Amino acid sequence: MKLTVQDLNSHYGPAHILFDIGFEVGEGEVVALLGRNGAGKSTTFRSIVGLVAQRSGRIMFEGKDVSARPTHEIVRDGLGYVPEERRIFTDLTVEENLEVGRQPKRPNAPHWTRDKLFSLFPNLGEMKNRPGGRMSGGEQQMLTIARTLMGNPSLVLLDEPSEGLSPKIVEQMVDAILTMKKEGVSIVVSEQNLHFARLISDRAYIIERGRICFGGTMAELDARPDIRDAHLSL
Amino acid sequence: MAFYVVQFLTGLASAASLFLVASGLSIIFGVTRIVNFAHGAFYMIGAYVAFTLTERLSGAFGFWGAIVIAAFAVALIGVLVEMVLLRRIYHAPELFQLLATFGLTLMVEDLVVLIWGPDDLVGRRAPGFKGAIDFFGQNIPSYDLFLIVLGPVVLGILWLLFQRTRWGVLVRAATQDRDMVAALGVNQKWLFTSVFAVGVFLAALGGALQIPRDAVHHAMDLRIIVEVFVVVVIGGLGSIIGAFVAAVLVSELNAFGILIFPKISIILVFLVMAAVLIVRPWGLFGRPEAPARKTPGLTVNPWRPLTSNERLASLAAFVIAATLPLFAGNYALTVGSEIAIFVIFAVSLHFLMSVGGLASFGHAAYFGLGAYGVAFLAKMAGLPMIVCLLLGPLLGCMGAAVFGFFAVQLSGVYFAMLTLAFAQIVWSIAFQWVSVTGGDNGILGVWPSSWAASPSHFYWLALGVAALVTIALRAMVFSPFGYALRATRDSLLRSEAVGINAKRIQWTAFVIAGTTAGIGGALFAYLKGSVFPDNLGISLSVDALVMVLLGGVETVSGAVIGAIVYKALNIWLVSQTDLSKLVLGGFIVLIVVVFPKGIVGMLEMLAQRRRKTSPPGSPLLAKPIESAE
Fold first, then answer.
1. Is A89 an 8 Å CB contact of chain B?
2. Which residues pair with A155 in a beta bridge?
3. Chain B closest CA to A73's CA: distance in Å?
4. Alpha helices in chain A (DSSP H)
5. What does the pLDDT look like over B479-531, one tens digit per residue?
6. With an 8 Å Cβ cutoff, are B183 and A12 in contact?
7. Rounded to a whole number, what is the distance in Å from the CA of B621 to chain A's nearest CA?
8. CA nearest A83 in B: which residue?
9. ipTM of this model?
10. A90: nearest CA in chain B?
11. I want to staple B563 with a disulfide (CB 3.0 to 4.6 A). Which of A151, A162, B547, B610 is the partner?
């Protein structure tokens, strides 16, 4: 398994957010984490990369337990994270944003260069020197993915990549994610949009109120409209 | 005309060092969010180390080599400080960081005296820049010209460093969002350490370059740090260009202010700073900050009024304190009165800080205004003591009303700095308006009337007022006004959303705190029989902050204990050792790092834990100080 999460519990101050979360991702797989607003998708991702201070459980990445390690070490091992809020460095140009994400080549993961990323996201190539703060939402979403890919991750956590984007940009996003998959990157993508998830994912988990309540292939999910309707708003 | 040009050039030369130190402070703040009070101390150490090295190494190469080596050596000390101290407090509230670095400054002041002695040291002249250049009959030291060129050169180097290197890109990214930088695989620890090293290097270089111009002495740290604060606030915290422009502006204001307004030369820069803070709090070249992401209030021990047993215990403590005159001598009673007065002072700041969430760095202004109020009424109007005591604090009240109105428009570091600026303005007036305030000589002969003249009577008076003030402020915490104030502290936006006029509530709290401090100051004037500008100085403001912190910011009345312990310790230390600043500074650092909850906070936590054993690894205890913000 590429990534195995077991018994993950997280707290924000006195509030218990995640309850015994568990899921796994195979080599080269695209797995969707589906759930409504506030279900705990982002917290799950933030906990995996160590951005939530109060967490417990086992997080096995490429066979090693990374749950006690600091964020930058987890990321340097090849576990990339694309935050929902995008968190572009607004004062930095597109090229400088990419520079922040740059990490050395990794033997077990595809190697991304600036030029390769500019061909994956042609819009970015046309605005290399534009400050991140003066880009549209869609362009920022592309930049935040490209920035994480500069670290040559073997697995990427993609937090709601389609949120707030126009249908045309969403189409580009689907293409980009499929290209990433073809290059060999394993992906966990969190989504509220089942349609989007279906276009890219092999399997799906549903998270509701901090608990995983379904796990299976997309076909299995389609066979259970009751679960789909109970836990996802369409 | 030539004279003014020379004056202008002198200003520019002074701006160079100021810029070096200020840019260092700005860079450090940008990434670590720490307002490094110890920056002046690093500047001073830079000057001392450079002095020693230039004495040892000979020749032109020796001199310039010594300057650079000194800056590197001090940068290494900075790295040590960052790794040992600052890394532990990056997540603490701003106030704790300011205090820890202030404690460091105190320690350094005693250490340099210990190493280099108390006398001013006059360094070597710079080889190749010993003479002066004649400019229409006026002399310009050639070293000044060197400094004038150096400023822009350093600015250019810094610009290249930040725009053209990977390190610079990472630093700029971390300035905006340090968590995201970590989430892209960058080790924040080393980034922070390297940034701190660069900042300290600049400060030390600024200090080292001063030795051909000025004597090296052990008070140069406070003088520069106040000016540097002014510069970074005017220029914008985190902006290097801003630091440059503001350094020039402040230096020229100093150079010409003394010619044009000799009476108010000190006040001038603070007036400009206050104006900038009010109009553009983020500075001329800074940018407004997004409200900090902060976890909603997590006070571990919710506040509650005292139980009846605790009331009895407090009453018993008060009664015991009141029996002091039965067995103690006059000296002990005078110390007791002073402690009682500082209880009033500390409690007033605590009210503003803990209940209102507004950490004032210039609270001594209102204490001192109360003292001056009494002195004016007693000496000029010749009013009896009881009238003076009632009316004197009104001066503190008025000061707080005027300054508070502007101060509460800001929050966090900017609030702290504006209150500091206001306190400096008041201090400058007291210091420079000699005809009214007596300047440095103060106002003497403010003696209590006969009914309060004996040490025991005065002690009872001070004790009684301290008790009344503490009870009144405590009652206020649990009144509707107190609830509203705490709401504005916990979330300004949410409190406004439920219909609380937040600014007005905060302003009221500011005035209450200022008036209370004024009451303390009024009593203090009578205790000492005199009033001096020091009564409104920075060190007194910091004393108050330490008392509150020592007692516990999260507690309702911890400041009472904090004031008693701190003041007693202080008086005792000064009588016991010449190194009181070293001990005190170490003490402050220790509290911030080891006991961030203060004495009372610790006791409350222990009691709480005994009452109900908290679940193992309780998230509430994992992050002890987050809620104090």
1. yes
2. A79, A186
3. 6
4. 41-48, 71-76, 94-101, 114-120, 122-125, 137-149, 167-183, 194-200, 218-222, 225-231
5. 999 999 999 988 888 899 999 999 999 999 999 999 999 999 999 999 999 99
6. no
7. 9
8. B180
9. 0.93
10. B176
11. B547
